[in-house]
Structure formats: C-alpha cells, structure tokens
Amino acid sequence: MINRLKLTGILSAAALILVGCGTSGSDESAVSEDGIQVVTTFYPMYDFAKNVVGDNGEVSVLLDAGQESHGYEPTPQDIAAIADADVFVYNSDEMETWVPSVLESIESSDVIVVEAAEDIALFELEEDEAAEEEHDEEGEDAHSVDPHIWLDPVYAQEQVAAILAGVITADEENKESYEANAAAFNEKLAELDSAYQTAFETAENRTFVVQHAAFGYIARRYELTEVAVSDVSSDAEPNPAKLAELQQFMIDNQITTVYYSDSASSKTAQTLAEATGASLEVLSPLEGITDEDQEAGKDYLSVMQENLTALKKVIQ
Ligand SMILES: [Zn+2]
Q: What's this protein's family per the entry (predicted)?
C-alpha cells in the first residue's frame, strides 16, 4: 500500500515536470520570453488590456490620440503587428469597421482575437439617425448601431472579462495573475458606476447637449437624455436647419452648457455656445489620450471621473 502511494507520488511529480516542459518549450500557444504581446486598436481597449495584462507582457495601441477612431484605415505595419501578436483586442465590428477584412487577410496567423463588445447587445440607431449617418458618411463607415460601449462603466466590466478570457487562452500559465488583475480593475469600474449612480440619482435636470453623440450608453444607464450636435460616427458639422433647431431647444429648455470633446474639433459647439450664451465644457469620449496626458497620469478611470465632474454641472 505504502509503496503504491509512493509510486503514485513519483508518477505525479513526473507528470508535473512534463507539463512544465510542455508550456515553456515548443508549445505553440506559449508566449515569448518577453511575456504576452497584446495589440489593441484604440485607447479604451489599450487601457482595459493593460490593466488585465499587468507586468506579464506588453500592450500596444495602433491609433494615436489625434487619429480619427471612426473610419480609420489600417497601415501595412498595423496589419503585421496584429498578425504577430499573441492577442489582438478591438471594440467591435461596428466601431473598427476595418477589422473584419484585416482578419480575413491574416487568416494563417494564430493570433487570438478578442472583440470586446461581442456579447453585448449594441443599441440600434433610430431610423432617422441611421439615415443621417449614411448621408453624412456616404456609406461604408457609417454606423447602424452605437459603438461607444466602453463609456458605460457596467459594459466596460464585460469588456474586461472578454479581454481576460482571450489573454488566458493565449497564456494559460499566468491565469491566476490575469484573473487577479481583472478582478481588481473591475472593482474600480464598479465603484465608478456607483459614483455615477449616486451623482445623478435625484437630479431634476437630466438633459445635456454634446457635440459628438458618444454618450448614449451613459444616458441610457443613468436615465439621462443626450442631445447631440453631430452623429455617432463623426464631429461633422450639422446642417443650418438642425443647428437652428438645437439653438431653439437650448433656449426653450434653459440649457446653458455645451459639451465638446477635447480631442476633436469644437467649432460647432463653439458656434452653438456663442449663439445661445452657453458655456463650453469638456466631455471626453476617451477615443484617445495624448502621450503627454498619459504621462501626467490620465487614464480611463481618471477621465471618466473628470467626465462625471463635468456632467454634474448640468445634471443636478
Ligand atoms: Zn465616437
């Protein structure tokens, strides 16, 4: 009996050694010595992935802060980077409309692809909004659903979970570390959600005017009304009739603030503010944070807090 137990013990130890060799040796799914290599499309995906990966590897981002995240065209270097990565993270086929064809072109790559919004039901745009989109964008890059899912602190947690699953598939060995990182970050996102809930709970004014229609998910989550100057896929200037309509809406509803994005053109917001005597406030869709701002410590959580502070000036 004792001998048999001992033997089992020896066999298990041998099995463990074999497993050890397998994962650090020629196993195809193992990551390189520098750790897992994750390529992401634009800022929120980068920030979420970085929080999951921690110090287990490297996370890079394809779009710089100033680049237009709607209707982006990938470079050959971008495509090569995606093909060479262990994991590629993007928001959705609806946001990064260029991704599906890129993935087709690199079919032979064994990169693990994470569409972070895959399991989230994106909101369809109203018919007239969608029609406007098509008109403005002339087809291809126009969205039929609202892709700005990352701005909702609850959906953001689901996106983190999707990224976690992809990262573990690529690097099973560090599963526990990734799980701990994701849990810690999701806890912060849950706190952010609570802060938004508390801030708006008893507010009487629940309507805000913003240049880029990126805040539909926040509006739905916290029962606010977003009135947007431009549409969900660009900061394009609306036609004069729509601008006049917005002006009248602001006067009728005594709205004295227009939000604009820090990274995009604020011309229309400025025009509207001047015409109505309203003030301008920044509300970031987080589609990019400059290197300078990142070095100064800005990230998804801090900018979402800044957005909350800015919204509280109107939603009260
Ligand atoms: Zn946007």
A: Belongs to the bacterial solute-binding protein 9 family.
pTM of the predicted protein model: 0.86
Q: How far is the CA of 232 from the centre of ligand 1 (A)?
A: 6
Distance (Å) from CA 47 to ligand 1 centroid: 17
For residue range 187-202, what is the model confidence (pLDDT) as tens digits?
Answer: 999 999 999 999 999 9
Q: Look at residue 22 and tell me whether its pLDDT is greater than 60.
A: no
User: Within this chain, do residues 232 and 188 fall inside the same structural domain, yes or no?
Assistant: no
Give the angle subtended at the CA of 154 by the CAs of 185 and 304, to the nearest 5°: 70
Does residue 23 sit in the same domain as residue 107? yes
CA of 226 to the centre of ligand 1 (A): 14
The three state secondary structure string of 252-268 is HCCCCEEEECCCCCCHH
Q: How far is the CA of 175 from the centre of ligand 1 (A)?
A: 33
Q: What pLDDT does 68 receive?
A: 85
**CA–CA distance, 36 with 42 (Å, rounded to integer):** 19
Q: Which domain holds residue 235?
A: 201-311
Examine residue 316 and state whether it is found in any structural domain, yes or no.
Answer: no
**Is the same domain home to 224 and 306?**
yes
